Amino acid sequence: MIDSLLLTATRIATFDLERPLTNATGFFFERDGRLFLVTSRHVVIDTPTQHFPNRIEFAVHSNPDDLARSEPFTVMLYEDGKSIWRQGSDSGGEIDVALIEIDREALPARSLLRAFTPEHLQASSIGQVEVGTSLLIVGFPLGFQDTLHYLPVVRQSVVASAYGLRFQGQGYFLTDARTHRGTSGAPVVMRDPAAEPGSELPWKLLGVHSARLDMASRDLEQDESLGLNCAWYADILMTLSEGSRQTRGDPSFATMRARKSA
What is residue 244's predicted lDDT score, i.e. its pLDDT? Predict the structure, then answer.
């Protein structure tokens, strides 16, 4: 049987009409029977780099008996001039996480995927997770994947800053891992020590991988990259998924206020 963790993530391609732009990672989150696709906000819009896609596409496994079969699923990012994703901000500024509600009925009838739920979220209280705790980052670096089965790869990582503290006042913690473009939006997880044997998804969701962190003062010729990354605390998903079911084009799909992480 395939490891359920590999079924939580999907490769995202962004487009400007029919023109391909970038590759990224997304993962599924479920709350109260509603399904969401989670990714980094800069995947759907990034003004500094003039990245303005109008649609995204991701693959969904369409036959549980044959992982080689999948179907593309397209999401238009705007309707009636309004963005359809949810995003958040707090006292530290904008949070690099976007949430898109997915219409289950539009997915293939036999879709095979796994979604994290509120029960999978790891509390962001100080001391809940030790520095150096082993993590996995599940994604599609440089768009790389198992091209036959459309599955992601995992990279090993560790917690590199005090978990529960907002690093430099921002709503993220640091991880130490080798990452690449295309990993943005990947789930950052650790094995759940309290999971029962045979649990369907025995992982805790700690964060959403955003980007590599570097120093502006680093000497590009003498100094290697720090190898550190930003992971936004995953409890933001509870804030972004609050409220009743929305419809595309609803203004409430735009910016929402996020609660402050510890």
Answer: 56
Look at the chain and report how many structural domains it folds into.
1
Give the CATH number, domain containing residue 216. Answer: 2.40.10.120
**End-to-end Cα spacing for the chain:** 38
What length does the chain have?
262
Q: Could you give the CA distance from residue 190 to residue 200 in angstroms, rounded to a whole number? A: 15
Q: Is the pLDDT of residue 253 over 60?
A: no
Q: Is 160 contained in some domain?
A: yes
pLDDT digits (tens, 9 = 90+) for 71-125: 999 999 999 989 999 998 877 788 999 999 999 889 988 889 999 999 999 987 8
Paired strand residues for 96: none
Residue 192, class by beta-carbon neighbours within 10 Å (0-12 exposed, 13-18 middle, 19+ buried)? middle
Range of the domain at 187: 4-245
Place of tokens 């696709």: 37
Give CA 259 to chain center in angstroms: 18
